[in-house]
Amino acid sequence: MKVVKVSTAAAALSDPLSPYWSSAAKERLSMMPTPLAMVDEVSPFLAISNDHGSVEEAEVAALHDGRTLTLRLSWAMPKAADKIDDLDRFVDAAAVIFPLARNASAMTMGAKGQPTNAWYWKAGKPHPYDVIAEGFGSSQRHDGATSSLSARAIHADGRWHVVFQRPLETSRDRVRFVPGKKTGIAFAIWDGRNRERSGRKSFSGEFIPLEIAG
Ligand code: HEM
Asked: Which CATH class is domain 2-212?
């Protein structure tokens, strides 16, 4: 996947319904249910889940202007779930994950000594989380604001449109985007109405290369 270089101001792109997005180059993502048998060791209960992963397709566009990376994710969801009004209610959510070590795997959300960094948006929350994980069950959430990560989301015409933005570089222990270089990326989407949370979700598979235009 390519992060395209543009001259449009990042502030204009933070609007998920900006007219800019209708003509922007987008990639289609095939999403599938997470293979939860893999998490048996950390959660035998989750490991027997077999009705998760309802979102099968998403669309993504990625841009940078030399300073800020903007990522817009969009997927069909006829009715938004954005409120937790009972114990058995869950909200829609989306995340992108990046490797922080050369051999880190998205399939396991990293491993001890091979960390990953995820940006995690949850419907109804004003700020995204900036998560560091070294394998399932090790996720450490941080407020996105601490690494200048922001997200804006709109549900319109039966779709969620979520825009993440972050400066190309923040602190040393977060993913860095260097123009002309590559990193990796993978995606996850949770359907709240299908009781999706934590490992119960759709995901895009192993990391794919993410090329930052120079
Ligand atoms: C490749 C794309 C993936 C992304 C973007 C992603 C992202 C996330 C995020 C943001 C969380 C929530 C952390 C929190 O509560 O703060 C999470 C939790 C979890 N994920 Fe993933 N994940 C991915 C793949 C997978 C796969 C393939 C599995 C299982 C085979 C999995 C299993 C889990 C489990 C068990 C949890 C709950 C425990 C924990 O928080 O570590 N994930 N994931």
From this structure: mainly beta
